[in-house]
Amino acid sequence: MKLLLKMCRALIVGLFVGAASAVEPQVIDCHVHLWDLSRPAGLSWIKKDDSVLYRNMLPADFEKVAKANGVTGVVLVQAGQSLPDNQWNLDITAHNPQLFRGLVGNLSEVIGTDAFAPLFDKLSKDPRYLGYRISGRYQEGLSDALYRDLKRTAAAGKSVDFLAGGFSLSEIATIAKQVPDLRIIVNHFGSVRLNGQALDAAWVKDFRAVAQQPNVYCKVSALYGRFEKQPAPKELSAYEPVLDLAFECFGEDRLVYGSDWPVTEATGDYASVLALTRAYVDKKGKDVSEKLFYRNAEKFYAIPAVK
Hints:
The protein is of the alpha/beta class and 307 residues long. The chain has 11 helices and 8 strands. Helix 2 (59-69) links the parallel strand 1 (28-32) and strand 2.
Protein backbone atom coordinates (compact mmCIF):
# COMPACT_ATOMS: atom_id res chain seq x y z
CA MET A 1 0.00 0.00 0.00
CA LYS A 2 2.81 2.41 0.93
CA LEU A 3 4.51 1.70 -2.39
CA LEU A 4 1.25 2.37 -4.22
CA LEU A 5 0.79 5.69 -2.38
CA LYS A 6 4.35 6.75 -3.28
CA MET A 7 3.72 5.88 -6.91
CA CYS A 8 0.51 7.92 -6.92
CA ARG A 9 2.22 10.92 -5.33
CA ALA A 10 5.05 10.72 -7.87
CA LEU A 11 2.53 10.56 -10.70
CA ILE A 12 0.62 13.60 -9.40
CA VAL A 13 3.82 15.63 -8.93
CA GLY A 14 4.97 14.63 -12.38
CA LEU A 15 1.70 15.78 -13.90
CA PHE A 16 1.95 19.16 -12.17
CA VAL A 17 5.58 19.66 -13.19
CA GLY A 18 4.81 18.69 -16.76
CA ALA A 19 1.87 21.06 -16.91
CA ALA A 20 3.90 23.92 -15.47
CA SER A 21 6.71 23.41 -17.95
CA ALA A 22 4.22 23.47 -20.81
CA VAL A 23 2.70 26.78 -19.74
CA GLU A 24 3.77 29.73 -21.85
CA PRO A 25 5.15 32.75 -19.99
CA GLN A 26 2.80 35.55 -19.10
CA VAL A 27 2.02 38.05 -21.83
CA ILE A 28 1.31 41.70 -21.11
CA ASP A 29 0.57 43.27 -24.48
CA CYS A 30 1.53 46.93 -24.25
CA HIS A 31 0.07 48.16 -27.52
CA VAL A 32 -3.59 47.38 -28.12
CA HIS A 33 -6.10 49.86 -29.55
CA LEU A 34 -9.84 50.04 -29.02
CA TRP A 35 -12.20 52.38 -30.82
CA ASP A 36 -15.78 53.23 -31.61
CA LEU A 37 -16.20 54.90 -34.98
CA SER A 38 -19.24 56.78 -33.71
CA ARG A 39 -17.14 58.74 -31.21
CA PRO A 40 -17.33 62.51 -31.91
CA ALA A 41 -13.73 62.89 -33.08
CA GLY A 42 -13.77 59.74 -35.22
CA LEU A 43 -10.53 58.23 -36.53
CA SER A 44 -9.47 59.87 -39.77
CA TRP A 45 -6.57 57.49 -40.38
CA ILE A 46 -8.93 54.57 -40.93
CA LYS A 47 -10.34 54.72 -44.43
CA LYS A 48 -13.97 53.84 -45.05
CA ASP A 49 -13.00 51.30 -47.69
CA ASP A 50 -10.74 49.42 -45.24
CA SER A 51 -12.60 46.13 -44.90
CA VAL A 52 -10.40 45.01 -41.99
CA LEU A 53 -10.27 48.06 -39.71
CA TYR A 54 -13.34 50.14 -40.55
CA ARG A 55 -15.50 48.69 -37.78
CA ASN A 56 -15.76 49.12 -34.05
CA MET A 57 -13.04 47.46 -31.95
CA LEU A 58 -14.38 47.14 -28.41
CA PRO A 59 -13.31 45.32 -25.23
CA ALA A 60 -15.29 42.19 -26.00
CA ASP A 61 -13.46 41.85 -29.32
CA PHE A 62 -10.04 41.78 -27.69
CA GLU A 63 -11.15 39.71 -24.72
CA LYS A 64 -11.75 36.85 -27.16
CA VAL A 65 -8.32 37.37 -28.74
CA ALA A 66 -6.64 37.49 -25.34
CA LYS A 67 -8.28 34.27 -24.17
CA ALA A 68 -7.33 32.44 -27.36
CA ASN A 69 -3.69 33.54 -27.20
CA GLY A 70 -2.86 33.45 -23.50
CA VAL A 71 -2.62 37.22 -23.09
CA THR A 72 -2.84 37.87 -19.36
CA GLY A 73 -2.71 41.66 -19.35
CA VAL A 74 -3.14 44.65 -21.64
CA VAL A 75 -1.84 48.20 -21.67
CA LEU A 76 -4.18 50.07 -23.99
CA VAL A 77 -2.83 52.85 -26.18
CA GLN A 78 -5.38 55.43 -27.24
CA ALA A 79 -6.04 55.15 -30.96
CA GLY A 80 -6.45 58.86 -31.72
CA GLN A 81 -5.72 62.28 -30.23
CA SER A 82 -9.20 63.17 -28.97
CA LEU A 83 -8.95 64.48 -25.41
CA PRO A 84 -12.31 63.04 -24.24
CA ASP A 85 -11.21 59.62 -25.45
CA ASN A 86 -8.71 59.43 -22.58
CA GLN A 87 -11.58 58.98 -20.13
CA TRP A 88 -13.60 56.92 -22.60
CA ASN A 89 -10.86 54.27 -22.78
CA LEU A 90 -10.73 54.06 -19.00
CA ASP A 91 -14.50 53.80 -18.72
CA ILE A 92 -15.08 51.07 -21.29
CA THR A 93 -12.42 48.79 -19.74
CA ALA A 94 -13.24 49.39 -16.07
CA HIS A 95 -15.32 46.19 -15.96
CA ASN A 96 -12.27 43.99 -16.52
CA PRO A 97 -9.20 45.40 -14.73
CA GLN A 98 -7.69 41.92 -14.51
CA LEU A 99 -7.11 42.03 -18.28
CA PHE A 100 -7.07 45.75 -19.08
CA ARG A 101 -4.31 46.70 -16.67
CA GLY A 102 -3.82 50.28 -17.74
CA LEU A 103 -4.11 52.99 -20.35
CA VAL A 104 -1.67 55.15 -22.25
CA GLY A 105 -3.88 58.07 -23.20
CA ASN A 106 -3.07 60.88 -25.59
CA LEU A 107 -2.38 64.48 -24.54
CA SER A 108 -0.65 65.64 -27.72
CA GLU A 109 -3.05 68.55 -28.15
CA VAL A 110 -2.49 70.10 -24.72
CA ILE A 111 1.03 69.30 -23.62
CA GLY A 112 2.93 72.55 -23.30
CA THR A 113 -0.24 74.56 -22.67
CA ASP A 114 -2.13 75.73 -19.58
CA ALA A 115 -4.77 73.09 -20.29
CA PHE A 116 -2.38 70.23 -19.61
CA ALA A 117 -2.10 70.24 -15.82
CA PRO A 118 -5.80 70.12 -14.87
CA LEU A 119 -6.59 67.36 -17.37
CA PHE A 120 -3.50 65.32 -16.56
CA ASP A 121 -4.11 65.60 -12.82
CA LYS A 122 -7.73 64.56 -13.18
CA LEU A 123 -6.91 61.51 -15.32
CA SER A 124 -4.03 60.50 -13.06
CA LYS A 125 -6.43 60.00 -10.13
CA ASP A 126 -7.26 56.69 -11.78
CA PRO A 127 -4.33 54.33 -11.04
CA ARG A 128 -4.91 52.64 -14.40
CA TYR A 129 -3.95 55.87 -16.18
CA LEU A 130 -0.30 54.98 -16.67
CA GLY A 131 0.69 57.94 -18.83
CA TYR A 132 0.04 59.34 -22.26
CA ARG A 133 1.23 59.21 -25.82
CA ILE A 134 2.58 62.05 -27.90
CA SER A 135 1.67 61.21 -31.47
CA GLY A 136 1.24 64.66 -32.94
CA ARG A 137 2.92 68.03 -32.68
CA TYR A 138 1.17 71.29 -31.91
CA GLN A 139 4.08 73.59 -31.05
CA GLU A 140 7.45 74.75 -32.33
CA GLY A 141 10.69 73.67 -30.74
CA LEU A 142 11.22 72.21 -27.27
CA SER A 143 9.65 74.93 -25.16
CA ASP A 144 9.96 75.65 -21.46
CA ALA A 145 6.24 74.89 -21.15
CA LEU A 146 6.77 71.46 -22.73
CA TYR A 147 9.53 70.65 -20.25
CA ARG A 148 7.36 71.93 -17.40
CA ASP A 149 4.63 69.43 -18.27
CA LEU A 150 7.07 66.57 -18.82
CA LYS A 151 8.59 67.21 -15.40
CA ARG A 152 5.11 67.19 -13.89
CA THR A 153 4.55 63.83 -15.56
CA ALA A 154 7.77 62.42 -14.09
CA ALA A 155 6.94 63.73 -10.62
CA ALA A 156 3.57 61.96 -10.80
CA GLY A 157 5.28 58.67 -11.63
CA LYS A 158 3.67 58.48 -15.07
CA SER A 159 5.35 57.68 -18.38
CA VAL A 160 5.32 59.00 -21.95
CA ASP A 161 5.02 57.04 -25.19
CA PHE A 162 6.47 58.78 -28.23
CA LEU A 163 5.38 57.92 -31.74
CA ALA A 164 8.41 59.32 -33.52
CA GLY A 165 7.46 61.58 -36.39
CA GLY A 166 6.06 64.76 -34.93
CA PHE A 167 9.04 64.67 -32.60
CA SER A 168 12.22 63.22 -34.08
CA LEU A 169 14.34 60.59 -32.40
CA SER A 170 17.04 63.19 -31.83
CA GLU A 171 14.54 65.47 -30.08
CA ILE A 172 13.32 62.57 -27.95
CA ALA A 173 16.94 61.91 -26.95
CA THR A 174 17.30 65.57 -25.95
CA ILE A 175 14.10 65.43 -23.89
CA ALA A 176 15.27 62.24 -22.16
CA LYS A 177 18.56 63.88 -21.24
CA GLN A 178 16.88 67.04 -19.93
CA VAL A 179 14.26 65.12 -17.89
CA PRO A 180 16.18 62.07 -16.68
CA ASP A 181 13.48 61.05 -14.19
CA LEU A 182 10.89 60.69 -16.95
CA ARG A 183 10.26 57.18 -18.24
CA ILE A 184 10.04 57.35 -22.05
CA ILE A 185 9.26 54.61 -24.54
CA VAL A 186 9.54 54.89 -28.31
CA ASN A 187 6.77 53.07 -30.14
CA HIS A 188 7.25 50.68 -33.04
CA PHE A 189 11.07 50.57 -33.00
CA GLY A 190 11.22 54.35 -33.24
CA SER A 191 8.87 54.32 -36.25
CA VAL A 192 11.32 52.42 -38.43
CA ARG A 193 10.21 51.75 -42.00
CA LEU A 194 11.04 48.37 -43.51
CA ASN A 195 11.19 47.53 -47.20
CA GLY A 196 13.31 44.40 -47.36
CA GLN A 197 16.49 46.42 -47.91
CA ALA A 198 19.19 47.49 -45.46
CA LEU A 199 18.01 49.75 -42.63
CA ASP A 200 18.34 53.46 -43.37
CA ALA A 201 21.74 54.61 -42.09
CA ALA A 202 20.50 57.98 -40.80
CA TRP A 203 17.66 56.32 -38.89
CA VAL A 204 20.07 53.76 -37.39
CA LYS A 205 22.32 56.56 -36.15
CA ASP A 206 19.41 58.33 -34.44
CA PHE A 207 18.07 55.06 -33.03
CA ARG A 208 21.45 54.26 -31.49
CA ALA A 209 21.65 57.77 -30.04
CA VAL A 210 18.26 57.71 -28.32
CA ALA A 211 19.06 54.29 -26.86
CA GLN A 212 22.05 55.85 -25.08
CA GLN A 213 19.63 57.56 -22.68
CA PRO A 214 18.99 55.08 -19.84
CA ASN A 215 15.44 56.33 -19.21
CA VAL A 216 14.34 55.45 -22.77
CA TYR A 217 12.79 52.09 -23.59
CA CYS A 218 11.68 50.68 -26.95
CA LYS A 219 8.55 48.78 -27.95
CA VAL A 220 9.00 45.63 -29.97
CA SER A 221 5.67 46.40 -31.56
CA ALA A 222 3.83 46.63 -34.85
CA LEU A 223 6.19 44.25 -36.63
CA TYR A 224 3.83 43.81 -39.57
CA GLY A 225 3.01 47.51 -39.69
CA ARG A 226 6.63 48.53 -40.11
CA PHE A 227 6.65 47.28 -43.70
CA GLU A 228 5.90 49.90 -46.32
CA LYS A 229 4.15 47.38 -48.54
CA GLN A 230 1.16 45.54 -47.10
CA PRO A 231 0.42 42.77 -46.43
CA ALA A 232 3.82 42.40 -44.78
CA PRO A 233 5.94 39.25 -44.96
CA LYS A 234 5.54 36.70 -42.17
CA GLU A 235 9.03 35.20 -42.35
CA LEU A 236 11.21 35.94 -39.32
CA SER A 237 14.19 36.71 -41.55
CA ALA A 238 12.44 39.89 -42.75
CA TYR A 239 12.46 41.29 -39.20
CA GLU A 240 15.74 39.99 -37.83
CA PRO A 241 17.81 43.08 -38.79
CA VAL A 242 15.66 45.49 -36.76
CA LEU A 243 15.19 43.00 -33.91
CA ASP A 244 18.95 42.42 -33.74
CA LEU A 245 19.56 46.16 -33.67
CA ALA A 246 16.96 46.74 -30.95
CA PHE A 247 18.51 44.13 -28.68
CA GLU A 248 21.99 45.45 -29.41
CA CYS A 249 21.03 49.05 -28.57
CA PHE A 250 18.52 48.66 -25.74
CA GLY A 251 19.49 45.31 -24.31
CA GLU A 252 17.15 42.78 -22.75
CA ASP A 253 16.03 45.08 -19.91
CA ARG A 254 14.57 47.99 -21.93
CA LEU A 255 12.46 46.24 -24.54
CA VAL A 256 8.70 45.76 -24.19
CA TYR A 257 6.28 43.69 -26.29
CA GLY A 258 3.29 45.20 -28.06
CA SER A 259 1.19 43.73 -30.85
CA ASP A 260 -0.45 46.85 -32.30
CA TRP A 261 -3.73 44.92 -32.52
CA PRO A 262 -6.01 45.29 -34.42
CA VAL A 263 -3.82 47.08 -36.99
CA THR A 264 -1.87 43.80 -37.25
CA GLU A 265 -4.95 42.21 -38.81
CA ALA A 266 -4.06 43.85 -42.12
CA THR A 267 -1.42 41.13 -42.51
CA GLY A 268 -2.28 38.31 -40.14
CA ASP A 269 -4.18 37.32 -37.01
CA TYR A 270 -2.97 37.90 -33.48
CA ALA A 271 -1.54 34.41 -33.10
CA SER A 272 0.80 34.93 -36.04
CA VAL A 273 2.41 38.15 -34.77
CA LEU A 274 2.80 36.67 -31.29
CA ALA A 275 4.38 33.53 -32.76
CA LEU A 276 6.70 35.65 -34.90
CA THR A 277 7.92 37.56 -31.85
CA ARG A 278 8.32 34.37 -29.82
CA ALA A 279 10.27 32.70 -32.62
CA TYR A 280 12.92 35.37 -32.24
CA VAL A 281 13.07 35.99 -28.51
CA ASP A 282 12.62 32.44 -27.21
CA LYS A 283 16.00 31.54 -28.70
CA LYS A 284 17.52 33.92 -26.14
CA GLY A 285 16.22 31.87 -23.22
CA LYS A 286 13.38 31.90 -20.72
CA ASP A 287 14.68 34.86 -18.70
CA VAL A 288 14.90 37.16 -21.72
CA SER A 289 11.50 36.02 -22.95
CA GLU A 290 9.90 36.77 -19.60
CA LYS A 291 11.47 40.24 -19.57
CA LEU A 292 10.18 41.10 -23.02
CA PHE A 293 6.69 39.72 -22.55
CA TYR A 294 5.85 41.02 -19.08
CA ARG A 295 8.60 41.87 -16.58
CA ASN A 296 9.89 44.95 -18.41
CA ALA A 297 6.32 46.14 -18.96
CA GLU A 298 5.53 45.91 -15.25
CA LYS A 299 8.63 47.90 -14.45
CA PHE A 300 8.36 50.59 -17.12
CA TYR A 301 4.65 51.34 -16.78
CA ALA A 302 4.54 50.75 -12.99
CA ILE A 303 1.43 48.65 -13.63
CA PRO A 304 -0.82 48.43 -10.56
CA ALA A 305 -1.23 44.99 -9.02
CA VAL A 306 -4.48 43.20 -9.80
CA LYS A 307 -6.77 43.23 -6.79
